[in-house]
Amino acid sequence: MKHVKVTVRRDPEDHGFWLVNVDGEPGAHTFGRSLGEAKRRGIEVVALWLDLEPDQFEIDWDLRLGDIAKPVKEAKAAIAHADEDRTRRDQAVRTLTEAGVSYRDVAELLGLSHQRVAQIAKAS
């Protein structure tokens, strides 16, 4: 399997486009109006430029986000933190309900609705 590095970056002069360049292959580039479109077109340009089928190569995407990198990084960290918090909350619900605490009491202790406590307890 061939590994190909492809750089995708926001056009600093036109924030509506993503520019795609196949590293080490001058002239192998394209663009997309969305990140998804840019990636799809990146796959196409690699296949055409290197005369390979898409299942014959794997792309290592290098996303250059420029001025939007910071909010993306912060959002990803917040999402990871939220996932960890949900896991801890769900474990607390399970521990309390397994200890015989009623759904309504668990809800009051944790600041949840009793319906949400029931959903969490039944999901485990």
Q: What does the model show?
A:
This protein is α+β, with helices and mostly antiparallel strands and 124 residues long. The protein has two domains: 2-64, 2-Layer Sandwich (TTHA1013/TTHA0281-like); 70-123. It has four helices and four strands; from the N terminus they run βββαβααα. A four-stranded mixed beta sheet has the order 3-2-1-4, covered by helices on one side. Helix 3 crosses helix 4 (114-123). The mean pLDDT is 94.
Radius of gyration, whole Å: 23 Å
Order of helices and strands: EEEHEHHH
Helix-and-strand structural type: alpha+beta
Measure the end-to-end span.
41 Å
| Low-pLDDT segments, ≥5 res | none
Which architecture of the largest domain would the CATH scheme give at its second level? 2-Layer Sandwich
Shape label: elongated
Number of domain modules = 2
Largest sheet: 4 strands, mixed
Individual helix count = 4
Total strands: 4
State the share of residues found in helices, binned by percent.
40-55%
| Largest sheet: spatial strand order | 3-2-1-4
CATH topology of the largest domain: TTHA1013/TTHA0281-like
| CATH homologous superfamily grouping of the largest domain | TTHA1013-like
What is the CATH C level class of the largest domain, in words? Alpha Beta
Nearest-integer average pLDDT: 94
Strand content bin: 15-25%
